[in-house]
Design goal:
With 70 residues, this protein is mainly α. It has two helices and two strands.
Length: 70
């Protein structure tokens, strides 16, 4: 993901777009982990949530590079 995206006539950085996607995925995954009860086994939930966001952001950024172009 290089460059900018056009959102309603406003150019938005690709970094911001990928961060927002990762944040949304992070919210969904955190909700799922809370429903399952996984946070009972996590020592530091804030640190875990930050690490989860960074990992998801790296996946979102790396995913388009791995997909073949049509």
């Amino acid at each position: 993901m290089i460059g900018e995206s056009d959102v309603g006539g406003v150019f938005v950085s690709a970094v911001l777009v990928s961060a927002v996607i990762a944040l949304g995925l992070s919210f969904l995954l955190r909700r799922l982990l809370a429903l399952v009860g996984a946070y009972r086994f996590i020592w530091h939930p804030a640190l875990f949530d930050t690490a989860l966001f960074v990992i998801l952001w790296a996946i979102v950024v790396a995913l388009p590079v791995r997909l073949p172009l049509s």
